Amino acid sequence: VAAVFARGTGEPPGVGIIGQAFLDALRSDLDGTETLDTYAVNYPASRDYPTAVAGVADAGNHVREISAGCPDTRIVLGGYSQGAGVIGLLTSDGSAVGSAALPGLPAPLAPEVADRIAAVALFGKPSPALLDAERMPQITAGPLFAGKTIDLCSDGDPICSAGSNASIVPHLLYGVNGMAAQAADFASARL
Q1: Is 31 assigned a catalytic role?
Q2: Which residues contact 108 (CB under 8 A, 6 or more apart)?
């Protein structure tokens, strides 16, 4: 199993805290005969949100390499916060391609590559209202991914919910509120 994870805004390079919690839970769900290789999406994860295009391109390139070179490997994608947006765009319906807000956004994954992806786990994906406020395109799941995506939003999370909670704390709790394990269970059931 190959897991590709995109960290959230401001996290140092790597998979981030939420990504590590998800990957640890996924590893423990595997039956012992499977190995889990992980890949941290390489992108700035900065507040300059249009640079997320670099993450979409990097994750897509890595997924295509796995798909071409490792025919028996099943792929799990995941992302947290801005990283959930990156993975959401990678698995989108392509409606954001050509957007003025995200010049250079790659086209969606080809169906034969999409078929290799067993599951997608999104944590705290930016809400439509937040994307509008940042003048970013909406993220619409592609039909090849809708049935294999879990899109988690913690109660009161101001990044992914429509609520007006001023506290960022709910957005930081995915690694400890049971949702990392929930997403891992979802993913492992599809492997």
Answers
A1: no
A2: 90, 91, 92, 93, 94, 97, 114, 142
Q: Is residue 190 within 8 Å of residue 148, measured between CB atoms?
A: yes
| CB 179, CB 123: distance < 8 Å | yes
Active site residue 81: yes
- Among 62, 154, 161, 171, which one carries the catalytic annotation? 171
CA 165 to chain centre: 23
| pTM attached to this predicted model | 0.96
User: Do 145 and 173 touch, CB atoms closer than 8 A?
Assistant: no
pLDDT tens string 57-94? 999 999 999 999 999 999 999 999 999 999 999 999 98
Written as six digits, the tokens of 17 are 């805290």
The C-alpha atoms of residue 90 and residue 109 are separated, in whole angstroms, by 7
- Burial profile 118-140: b = 16 or more Cβ within 10 angstroms, e = fewer: bbbbbbbbbbeebbeeeebbebb
Q: Where do the H-state alpha helices sit in the chain?
A: 16-29, 52-69, 82-90, 111-114, 128-133, 179-189
Catalytic site includes residue 99:
no
Which residue out of 92, 157, 161, 188 is catalytically annotated? 157
Residue 52 backbone phi and psi in degrees, to 5: -60, -20
Question: Choosing from 81, 92, 154, 188, which is the catalytic residue?
Answer: 81
Residue type at position 80: Y
